[in-house]
Amino acid sequence: MEGVKAWTFRLGSIPAGTTSKELKKLFYSEDRDSIQIKSLVPAADNHDRNGEQTATVLFQPREGIDQPRLLNHDITVDKHFYGLTPLYQPQGPIAADVIAITGLAGHAFGSWAHSRSEMWLRDYLPKDVPNLQANKASSIFADYSTNFINRLKEMRISAKCGDRPIVFIGHSLGCLIIKKALIDFNGSNRLGVHLPVRSIIFFGAPHKGLETKKLELLVQSQPSENLTKELRPGSTTLSGLNENFCHVSEDIPILSCYEKVKTKTPVKV
To answer: What burial class does residue 19 get, using C-beta atoms within 10 Å of its C-beta: 0-12 exposed, 13-18 middle, 19+ buried?
Structure first.
């Protein structure tokens, strides 16, 4: 399949102690030359580093073979990256957890990728700040923010993270998920868990909403009526979100990055 681009896949439920060399041997022999192991770290719920692992691999499709094939069928393979995906974990003490969140129509890997093979959070950030633990999450909005924060609380408790700092990074609607999640956390923190958010970075946050037509182009289909109402400019949902977020983020440094030059809007053909 000449000209076909390589794709990044996520592997889960990898047995504890498996090395990169051993993992490559678990693929079909005819697929191994088409595979690069890009990361292999403890799974998101593996807190003592003795449990299952998660990997990201770059695979070059061939005629009739569109994803890597494994001899061990207990290992999972996907390229949607739903949920939390650990990308890097330092060998020594972890100084902070970096959690990046994409939003509607944003791919959890592609949104942070420099190219098909290079990804900022996985390949570049650890070189600059090697004692950070990097994770990424994919979600949409309100209900997803609740699921996200509940999962995060459970992980923090079981991992005994204590006051280890968290740095949130949001892209597009992922920024709104961060805002909603922090509001919900502060409003229903029955477990008494401290969430030490040290900093938040927003990339292209639609604080004031999105135009309905642009929203439809983003999802490439007709979005639900409720979602359209929630995300349109001037909606009560966004007004309440912005007002409540001000109260829970007073002591959190926030860096907002946005474009000053208009980019072309995609057109459905």
So the answer is: exposed
List Cβ neighbours of 3 (8 Å cut-off, separation of 6 or more): none
Q: 250 near 196, Cβ under 8 Å?
A: no
pLDDT higher at 38 or 209: 38
Question: What are the Cα distances from residue 188, in Å, to 6, 153, 192?
Answer: 43, 12, 9
Q: Rounded to two decimals, what is the model's pTM?
A: 0.84
For residue 198, which of 159, 237, 249 has the smallest C-alpha distance? 249
Beta-strand runs (E) in 139-196: 166-171
Separation between Cα atoms, residue 73 and residue 135, nearest integer Å: 25
β-strands 53-59, 76-78 pairing: unpaired
